[in-house]
Every structure is written in C-alpha cells, then in structure tokens.
Description:
Blueprint: E1 3-7, H1 11-21, E2 26-30, H2 33-42, E3 47-51, H3 60-70, E4 75-80, H4 85-94, E5 98-101, H5 107-141, E6 145-149, E7 155-158, H6 162-166, H7 170-173, H8 187-199, E8 208-213, E9 219-231, E10 234-244, H9 246-319, H10 327-355, E11 365-367, H11 369-390, E12 395-401, E13 407-409, H12 411-428, E14 433-442, E15 446-453, H13 460-465, H14 482-492, E16 496-502, E17 506-514, E18 546-550, H15 554-566, E19 570-574, H16 577-586, E20 591-594, H17 603-613, E21 619-623, H18 626-631, E22 641-644, H19 649-662
Amino acid sequence: MGKILIVDDELGILEELSDYLANSYKIVTANSSSEAIKILESEEIDVAIIDMYMESEESGIDVLKAAKQISPLIQCIILTAYGTASNVVSAMRAGAYDYVEKQSPDIYENLVHRINKALEYRDSLQAYQKSEERYQTLIENLNEVIYMMDTRGYITYISPTVEQYTQYKPSEIIDQHFSYFVYPNDRSYVLDRFYDALNTNSNNFQPYEFRIIDKNQKIHYVRNSSRPLKENGKINCLIGSLIDITKQKEAEEQRKKAEKDLRKANKLLKKALNELKETQQKIIQQERLRDMGQLASGITHSFNDVLEVTLGLSDYMLNNPNILNDIETVKSYLKMIKNSSEDGRKLTERLKMFYRQRDEDEVFSPVNINELIKQVVLITQPKWKVQAQVQGIKIDVLTDLQDIPLINGKENELREVLTNLVFNAIDALTTGGTISLKTKVDGGKDVIIEVADTGIGMTEETKRRCFELYYSTKKDAGTGLGLAIAYGTIQRHDGKIDVQSELGKGTKFTIRLPIGTVTPKKEEESKPEKLEFEESKPEKSLRPLNVLVVDDSEPIQKILGLYLTAGGHKFELAGNGKEALEKFRSGTFDLVITDRAISDISGDKLAYHIKQMRPETPVIMITGLGNIMKASGEMPKDIDRLISKPLTMKELHQALAEITTLT
C-alpha cells in the first residue's frame, strides 16, 4: 500500500480527498507548504498530491521542488483549478509526474488512476536505481579495469580498480588520451588496434596484450578486450576492460627459463647417457664378438665341408664332360650339391640366432627353456665338437631336460647367458671331458637350470669374484664381462645364479628363474628332418611378369634368369645401379629384384630412386645378409620383400606370387 501526502490549504478538499483515498492508500495530509515540507523531511512518501496555488508563503511548485530535492524518487501530482498550458508546462518542468483539474467531473477516478501509474513509475525507478547501485558495486569490485573512451581516444570513464594497479586515481585519468599511459614501444600497435575497432563492421574483436606504465613508471602487462558502442547506427564510444597479467607474464618467463635450463640439463644428461650406452654397447659387443669369433672358427670348418661337396662335384663334372650323358648320375650329384647347400644355409641360421639384437622396447614373453638349451647345444657345436676334434680332444655334451613349465623372459638374452656358460665350460675342458645341461622344477615355483663341466675348476678367489665386472682369468683372451652380463640378465629376470666349483674337479652354475603364467604346450617328439628332392615348380596361377634384375654377379644373374624363365616371366639384366636406373626409366617393369651390395650404389638407394619414380612398383631385395638383417630388425623402408641368399626357385616363385597378390 502506497503512502500518499495530500497538500491543500482548503480543508474541505483535503478532507474529501483523504476520505475517498483512505480505503486504498495510507494517507498523510498537510494544509500548508511548511507543514508539507516537514512531513517530507521526516517520513518516506511515495506520491504527493499538491495544490498548485495555496495562500501561503510558498506555492505548490515550491513544495514540488522541495519534495524532489528531499526524495528524488517521489512522484508528484499537481491539483489545479486552471489547467492552462502554461500551468501544465511549469509543473512538468519542475518535475511533476502528472496533473489533475479540480473541476473535472470524474476527478476521483482520474486521481486514483494517476496515483497508481505514479506508484508503478516510482517502483520501476527504484528498481532501476538498485540495479545501477549493484552494477556500480560490481564494477568497483571487479579485478578488471572497466573503461569508456570517445572516438578520439579520450577516456570518459574508468572504474576505481585502476588505482589498485596503476596508483592513478580515476580523476587523474579521465579526460586524458589513453596513449599517454601506454608503454612507448607499444603505442603504435595499440593505436592501430584502436582505429581498427572503430573502422571495422565485424563483431569479432579479439583480445590483445600490451604494456602500460603506472604512476611510479613501473611497467605492467595487460590484456585488453574492447568493442565499439553504436547509437542510431553510428559509433559514439568504445567500452572495454583491462586485466593485469604481469604476474602471469613473469611466471611464464620463469617457466620458459626453467624449461630452457631443463632442456639444457636434459641435453647434457642425454649426451652422458648416450656416451655411457655407447661405451656399454661397445664392451658388450666386444664380448659378443669374442664369442662370435669362437663360434665362427668352428662354423668355418663346417662350411668348408659344405664347399668341398659343391666344389668337388662341380669340378669333377666339368673335367669329365662325358658323365653329363648319364642323366641319373648327374641328377644324383646335383641333389648332393643341393643338400650340401642346404646344410650351409643352416649354418648361417645358427649365426642368425646368436646375432639377434636386443630390442629396447621388447617385453617379456613365454620362453621354453628346454628348446632354448637345444638351440644353444646346436649353436656351440662347432666349438665343442669340431674345434675340439681339431685340437685332438673329445668333449661330450649331455642333456637331461625334464618336463618344465614356460618362464617369462627375453629369449635372446637368456640364449646369450647359456651360450656364454657353455663357452666357459669348453674353455675349462683343456684335456676334454663332459658338459651337462639339466633342467627341473623346484617346489612348483622355480625352473632350475644347471650347466656343469668336469674341467679344471676355480680357485676360491675366482669363485668369489667371477661375477665381478672386468674380472677375468683368461688374460688377453677375455674381457671379464661374460659372467657379469649373465648375472645382470638373470637379475633382470627376477632370478638367481650361483656357482659351485672345486679346483681340479669342475664347475656347476645353477640358475633359478620364476615360473611364468602361461601353460606350456606338450612338447612334440622331435623327428629327423626329411630332405626333399622334388623339383621346384613355378606357381601356375601367376601371370607373366616383366622383371628388372640387378646384381653385379653374372652367376647370380644367370640363376635368377633361369628361375624367371622357368616361371614364364620376361626379364632384363643390369650389372650396377646406374644401368638399372636407365633401364627402369626407359622400360616398363612389373617389379624389380636387386642385390643389396652392388658396385656403384647400394640396393637401398636404388630402391629409393625407383620408388621416387614409380611408388607402386614392388622391389624385392635378395641378399646374403638377409638372415642377419631380419634377426636385427633391419628392413630398408623402400623394400617390399627381403629374401636371404641362397634361395631356391620355389622360394622366388612364392615371393613373386605373394607380392603381386598384395599389389
């Protein structure tokens, strides 16, 4: 219910109005201007109904002016007996909300209607005022600095927060050009952005950063967001906000410096680690090369046996041409040569198993220890059998492999450990003897591996120090790394390795490895390999191909040519990379077969140039290093298929069929 003040010096009218309005409003009356002003000063009045002409020292217009000064939200309605235009204009100029003529026949209804409208208007003004106060409070408490500037760049408003950052009071900034506070080196950039904002029609105004100078000449980094305000389609000012980002900038600079220092430290650390790794790899490689040398000496003897068969039979047939008429005899000789060549290929397979490089990302996988021991016996055979026979001594290798579960580990590392232990055992059997390799399960938790010999044994000092890095009793023949590496490998597999030895009675190494989580498959009975003497036949379904063959060996060219002809293919030969590229540019080939080691450029580079010219052309590399490359994970990126020499016609035809199917 609104509170209404009625001011009139005629008591009759005052009483009539009061009685009529009392049912709808709270009424306060005054019959003089002075009494009215006292009430306005002491009470909160919503609407004042004021007689325009009163016989007192002050007129109704004077009371109206005083009311608006005391309470700006009060709404005043003027009562007048003469509703002339001049009277109305005077009242409205003084701040009246409306007026009512006393002679109006429906004065009461008109008055109620105008009072209600005046109350609504007062409520809206009051709500707007509160909103303005909240907005001002919000602006003043924001961390951001809110500002307005005219189209010339002069600041017309800035929030009090600016003093917190710049020590300037708002009054010291208002009416100043904004560029005065911008860091000199940034002024040109900021002015360009200011004029861009005024001259663009886009609504996409991106924040930007620059520097300002505070009252104490200290530099601050700020992020500015602003946009123009339009009135009647024309820009009349720019409104925006500034955020002080100095601390963030300082933190960012510190972070960049820390990152730079960290990168520098990491670079030095990486360099040190690489040097350490290279040194370690060189030492390990030295140990491996020593073992490879021992292995190769035995394999050389066996390989010479292979060559003897090939060389002897071919030499015999060339010197006795008449034998070529005996087809069956020649065929039997050729089969012997083929079988001997297969034996030679198996010898290189042994080197492949030993050569396989460690993969740094390789994870543990199930390992069959019994199969691993069989491989080690085969790998080391050239030394404990062939080389020992050359030295006139006899060494027997015995195995007792019980049914054991799989373990989790790295097969190549465990193979090197066992190979090293066997080589050490061979070295200890200076006059011959026995090496025994045994496996068993201990308590259902561990797999036990025993490598024992009947050799010269160890002294107490050697037994105590044999796992030390660089400790060796072989003088220049050893590096002192083999057993140290073996110890580290078994430790990484969560296992243990122990040694028992007595001088003159032999040595036994015992390895314990935890059982893996994979159930082993039942070991199949080993069967002797059946040699196949059937003739190689080309793939019947393979379409005829045009092949470019690149090899600097004429016999190899001849063999590959014969293989391709037998398969119904056409081919052209090139003896070096330059000739191959010339023929490839001028011809149309379905695929290219190349050796890796050719006279002028490598097969890798040849493949690269071919792929640059025709990426869709398959390239097959045939090389004597194929097994080692596969074992070490070395696969040239432009090669589609890698085949090891020696190869059979069947292997070549199978490769051609597979690669043409894929393309």
